[in-house]
Structure prediction request, 730 residues.
Amino acid sequence: MLKSSKWIKSPENCNTCPDFYLNINIEKPISRATLKVSALGMYIAYVDGKRVSEDLFTPYCTQATKRIQYQSYDVTKLISGTSRIDFLCAQGWFVGEMPWSKDRTSKALSDHISLIFELEIVDSEGKKFCYVSDENTKVSTSHLLSSQFYDGEVYDLTAAVEELGFAVCDDEAKPELVEQEGEFVREQEVFYPVSMIITPKGERVIDFGQNLSGYVLVDAKGKQGDTISISHAETLDESGNFLTENLRQARQKMKYVLNGERKLLKPFFAWFGFRYIRIDEYIDGDIDLDSFKCIAVYSDMKRTGSFLCGNEKVNQLYHNVIWGQKSNYIDVPTDCPQRDERLGWLGDAQVFARTAAINFDVEKFFRKWLHDIALYQLENNGAVYGICPNVKFAYDTRISAAWGDAATICPWEIYLAYGNREILEEQFESMKMWVDYIHSFGEEEFLWIGGYHYGDWLAMDSDGDEVVTDCDYIASAFFANSTLLLIKAGEVIGKDMTEYIQLYSCIVKAFRKRFIKNGLPTVKTQTAYVLALHFHLTENMELTAEGLANLIKENEMCLSTGFVGTPYLLHALSDNGYAELAYELLFQEKCPSWLYAVNHGATTMWERWDGICSDGTFQKLDLDSFNHYAYGSVFDWLFGVAAGIKVQDDGAGYKHISVRPLTDKRLKFIDVSIQSRYGKVRSSWYYKGDKVFYEIEVPKDCVADILLEDGYSVTVAGGKHFFAKQYNLV
Ligand code: BGC
Prediction:
């Protein structure tokens, strides 16, 4: 692919976003035209001024030290005999500086934008013409004076466009070109202004009612030279003023200079995390709210999960989880869409992977990302760093337990959800390399002792930034879990896993010897107990479960877990006889709890349990995102335990499931469905007085082991099944 094309760059330093272009001239009618393009940077391709596709932010984010995707477009309908092809380019992920550090010294992969393309045309007589990127491609400046996706753009329609001459070949080594693997990012829902606010500071602010990732479309009518400037933010502060401090170094601003013509304006290469915009500059006169629309953008994943229950706050929580996922699934699973990060943090991704695969079809999305993890590992002796793709080339993330473990957890979850063994075949070496890396780390063969971990990140029992749950404990527990997942994966694809089965048993033995005394974890935190239970590391499940329940009761019936313990907390309780307490935590409204943010008007998931304090002030503005999806993982409990649908290891893709609903009168009813590869799986229950009715739907060709709370069990094949349970009858 693109074999005769050359990587090209601007002949001189272009002080705007460069426009690479060429004119073609074909005499005969055209029967087929295909355009293949990639860039180190981002590109938008146009034929005679028309966008070739609606895909945003191409060629997307990969481990660009190794590989970069190209996209292929059928442009037959757009092209005529004499057409002009343009490629407007911007820095994207790989060029320039990253606004991570205050002095902005963190450098990306390259200091200049590079482009590569091939346009293949077949005329009506079958004759082939190939136009490729080379020294015949021309370059000019553009109206897009600057573009950086954290900072925003300056688009000046009055700026003079200057010819820079012919492109030059870029001889620096370039990553391998691979065909598009991931999902395309596209425009999705449209939101209209909910209100216009004049803040106490006198700022003109528009509220779109939903925190999201995207941008604003402005219908701009103004005179030549009129300016429109817009800032984006997630929230207002406690006095009702526009709050940008939690964006840290990201500026999130759009500036347009008009040329007197009416124009629909939106960013070319930038997106923002926001619910509110502040109009900093506007053409003369009052702001016309009808001129502003907000467009959500995210990876074009098919929605698969639906959830409804009898508690409005839990329903709102699900809404927030969905928007947390939409806002953060922009080509890679990012941590947040607003501040100067927006990167593929592994911990966040693994914590949420199961919920993600319930909500949307994320198979393609994860496969691409996991391939980059494997490639990056090769550069690092099997170590998996905190961020992938690693685009902050100057920034060392940690090799941390629960972050690196995404390398084993995510492939397994994607396999379970979609039943495609290929993901395990593709990732097996990466999973193995990760386990081997931990195995060879440090002095202790069967434990993971030492290293520099993120720990139970943002746990409420933390002392400032210090995590309380011992990191050696967490790391060793995840070592066991990852080894177990590796064994399961290996067995699915027919590998001999004897060596790892022995390793696993040694890890469990060593863990118990070091961290379990008299049947209880020596580390006395909720997260430590949760891991011991969920990973089956304690010999005394009963005592440990009781201990966990006591820790919660002593903490005024509140959780204290962070990124590591939270995803398994309700499972650890309900799997071990404390279902009511699990529900208690779900319904808790005091901070920390899931519903606390809901009560504070959240429309997405917050990064911190206490992101906004009860008096409306903020906990820690330099680490206070209101769009972090990790704690949304509670929905794998709501689907998997409350509604009771779980994929069995021997029936990946929902071929073999168990359905064991766990009712609670406070929820009144639950009705969930998942569109699996085999069809719709649905579990619903509702109370009528004290009687519970169950409706369970199993796809054709699938099998479900149903177990109801009164002990009634039955194995059913595809179809709709109805049951009732009378509580008062024995
Ligand atoms: C990110 C997290 C991430 C973490 C590592 C943060 O800055 O936003 O979500 O997992 O760093 O602990």
Residues 335-336, 341, 345, 347-348, 386, 454, 457, 628 surround beta-D-glucopyranose (CB under 6 Å). The first helix runs from residue 312 to 328. The chain has a mean pLDDT of 94.
